[in-house]
């Protein structure tokens, strides 16, 4: 496994998380570098979701240390993470389906008119619409209309809206949980293209996926979790689906011995 | 995200002028307005001089004024996916509080300071009930239907306890200037107040962050929470807003009838809910407009007025409103099922 040249943008070590008697993470480590797509894979119950929740501020770890850009990282909630430029695309997308794409992109971070109307909370809808159009264009996402409710968009388009929202605000790290799970072939390719474009902006993209061929196709690196611990790291170019399966099932362990 | 200047953005085809027209045609308001105009045209054709004269048109707007104020608050609540059954009782309670304050300081001859004081007390009382509703729904985790059914009973009961069940009167000045006055001999003050409420709160819903978050909370509360919207706090504010407007309606009611009319508001929640739903607000939350609600309130008022002029027994109105409400919700549900199938 080649050593990446620069220090990791987001790094975690020795992360422990218990739920009652169940130990979901037992000293897990994880690294993500700026401008790469890193896939986080593992069998069901390996601790992927728990680790992502810890790294995105949704859960507080029982032990372990995290750094972002070399600085110690202590996240109290997901909003903390968002303030630091860490965004998450949830599997359920978390969109307000009755609002349009532009409104969803700015939800919770609305642009207000200049004072005095801004003091009354009046929205600057034109600026937000323009911002949304620009955000979609820069990712080459084509929507029929940014002003129709998200509900009337296709599954792939909704996924793109969720991704675009995360990416619009993520300056450093984006977590994407199974972003292509429910999509058809064409839509899947569209989302994967978007993921590559996000990486090209210098953001670290963390992809959680069960689809190993897809992981090898889109990710630059792969980190494998097993039983709450990192067991292997691969550069995608040097790994096969077989390697990944062997690491996931415990046939090989290349690092972090218990 | 850096905000691009508008000049950098090419207009993307459908979002331009055509999009605006398409958006308008998609809204229910246009269709509901068509129904209203159609009904008015039928009555006007049957009884031109009685129905379409200035006196009757004024009567329609005066009769719609208080239901509009209640239905505006109801629209906010329903958009969050909730319901407020307590509005009629809160109206009565607020009217009683206002009348008590005014009665204690000059009664029928009370001056404007007293009237203002009493009105503020009434509106504050309404807001208080709204806060109670909001706290029960959010912190108490009681379904809105039950929480507001409970406060419906409590507010009305307490109003009756406070008055021994007999109505209180209102100061003459309030009745003369707010209740019955016509500006320039044409424009009823009550209707102007209701119009102002509709415009201000319509703006709040359509153009501000508060309104945007109201839609978001009703559309997907979990999504709202994840982007940092404080959902419970927002819901409490929305129920408080509904209570506040019920308080305003209570003062207007006192001005209109010169009485607290304790026994006459059992169907107010029905007419407010029906107004919102007829105007396109979905009982499932996430969508609705104040413009639609105003039209939705006017429809039963016009039908009622027309039936009276035609000499039909007006008790049929409740049958009609109830039936139309059920049918409107049925079609809303059908529409949602069809849309969500893909």
Structure description:
Chain B: The chain crosses the membrane at residues 28-48, 60-83, 90-108, 114-132, 144-163, 183-206, 235-255, 307-331. Chain B: Keywords: Cell membrane, Membrane, Transmembrane, Transmembrane helix. Chain B: GO terms for molecular function: transmembrane transporter activity. Chain B: It is found in: Cell membrane. The complex is a heterodimer of chains A (258) and B (342). Chain A has 258 residues and is an alpha/beta fold. Chain A has helices spanning 48-55, 78-83, 101-105, 125-138, 155-169, 185-200, 212-218, 241-249, and strands at 10-19, 22-32, 37-41, 63-68, 71-72, 86-89, 173-177, 204-208, 221-226, 229-235. Chain A has two domains: 6-85 and 171-258, 3-Layer(aba) Sandwich (Rossmann fold); 93-169, no CATH class. In chain A, 31% of the residues lie in helices and 24% in strands. The mean pLDDT of chain A is 88. In chain B, helix 13 (268-278) crosses helix 15 (316-340). Chain B has a single domain (48-335), classed as ABC transporter involved in vitamin B12 uptake, BtuC (Orthogonal Bundle), CATH 1.10.3470. Residues 1-17 of chain B have low confidence and may be disordered. Helices cover 73% and strands 1% of the residues of chain B. Chain B contains 15 helices and two strands. Chain B has helices at 17-26, 28-46, 48-51, 54-79, 87-103, 112-138, 144-163, 172-179, 189-207, 209-219, 221-226, 231-257, 268-278, 290-310, 316-340, and strands at residues 182-183, 187-188. Chain B is mainly α. Classes of the chains: A alpha/beta (258), B mainly alpha (342). Chains A and B meet through helix 2 and helix 4 of A and helix 10 and helix 11 of B.
Key structural traits:
heterodimer, A: 258 residues, alpha/beta, Rossmann fold, 2 domains, six-stranded mixed sheet, four-stranded antiparallel sheet, 8 helices, 10 strands, 31% helix, 24% strand, globular, B: 342 residues, mainly alpha, ABC transporter involved in vitamin B12 uptake, BtuC, two-stranded antiparallel sheet, 15 helices, 73% helix, 1% strand, transmembrane helix (chain B), transmembrane transporter activity (chain B)
């Amino acid at each position: 496994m080649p050593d990446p040249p620069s220090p990791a943008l987001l790094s975690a070590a020795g992360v422990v998380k218990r739920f009652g008697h169940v130990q979901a993470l037992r000293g897990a480590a994880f690294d993500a570098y700026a401008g790469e797509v890193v896939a986080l894979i593992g069998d069901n119950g390996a601790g992927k979701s728990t680790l992502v929740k810890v790294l995105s501020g949704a859960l507080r770890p029982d032990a372990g240390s995290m750094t972002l850009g070399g600085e110690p990282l202590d996240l109290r909630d997901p909003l903390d993470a968002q303030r630091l430029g860490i965004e998450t695309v949830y599997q359920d997308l978390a969109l307000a389906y009755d609002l349009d794409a532009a409104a969803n992109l700015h939800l919770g971070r609305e642009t207000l008119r200049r004072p005095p109307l801004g003091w009354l909370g009046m929205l600057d809808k034109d600026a937000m619409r323009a911002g949304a159009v620009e955000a979609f264009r820069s990712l080459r996402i084509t929507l029929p209309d940014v002003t129709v409710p998200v509900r009337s968009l296709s599954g792939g388009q909704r996924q793109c809206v969720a991704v675009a929202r995360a990416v619009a605000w993520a300056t450093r790290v984006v977590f994407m949980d199974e972003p292509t799970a429910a999509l058809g072939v064409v839509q899947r390719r569209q989302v994967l293209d978007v993921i590559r474009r996000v990486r090209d902006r210098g953001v670290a993209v963390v992809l959680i996926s069960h689809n190993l061929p897809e992981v090898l196709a889109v990710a630059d690196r792969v980190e494998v979790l097993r039983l709450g611990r990192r067991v292997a790291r691969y550069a995608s170019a040097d790994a096969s689906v077989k390697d990944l399966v062997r690491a996931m099932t415990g046939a090989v362990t290349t690092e972090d011995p218990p | 995200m850096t905000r691009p200047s508008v000049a950098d953005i090419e207009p993307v085809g459908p979002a331009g002028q055509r999009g605006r027209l398409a958006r308008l045609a998609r809204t229910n308001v246009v269709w509901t307005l068509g129904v209203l105009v159609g009904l008015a045209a039928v009555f006007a054709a049957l009884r031109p001089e009685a129905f379409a004269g200035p006196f009757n048109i004024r009567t329609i707007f005066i009769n719609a004024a208080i239901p509009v104020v209640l239905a505006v608050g109801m629209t906010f609540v329903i958009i969050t996916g909730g319901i407020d059954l307590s509005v009629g009782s809160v109206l009565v309670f607020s009217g009683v509080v206002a009348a008590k304050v005014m009665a204690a300081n000059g009664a029928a001859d009370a001056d404007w300071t007293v009237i203002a004081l009493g009105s503020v007390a009434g509106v504050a009382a309404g807001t208080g009930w709204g806060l109670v509703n909001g706290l029960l729904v959010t912190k108490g985790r009681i379904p809105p239907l039950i929480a507001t059914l409970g406060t419906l009973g409590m507010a009305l009961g307490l109003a009756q306890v406070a008055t021994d069940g007999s109505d209180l009167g209102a100061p003459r000045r309030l009745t003369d200037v707010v209740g019955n006055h016509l500006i320039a001999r044409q424009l009823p003050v009550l209707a102007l107040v209701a119009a102002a409420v509709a415009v201000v709160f319509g703006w709040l819903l359509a153009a501000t962050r508060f309104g945007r978050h109201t839609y978001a909370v009703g559309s997907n509360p979990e999504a709202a929470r994840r982007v940092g919207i404080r959902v419970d706090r927002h819901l409490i504010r929305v129920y408080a807003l509904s209570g506040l407007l019920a308080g305003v309606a209570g003062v207007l009611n006192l001005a209109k009838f010169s009485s607290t009319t304790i026994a006459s508001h059992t169907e107010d929640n029905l007419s407010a809910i029906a107004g919102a739903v007829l105007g396109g607000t979905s009982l499932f939350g996430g969508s609705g407009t104040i413009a639609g609600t105003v039209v939705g309130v006017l429809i039963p008022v016009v039908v009622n007025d027309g039936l009276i002029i035609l000499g039909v027994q007006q008790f049929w109105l409740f049958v009609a409103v109830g039936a139309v409400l059920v049918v409107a919700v049925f079609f809303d549900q059908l529409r949602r099922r069809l849309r969500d199938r893909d």
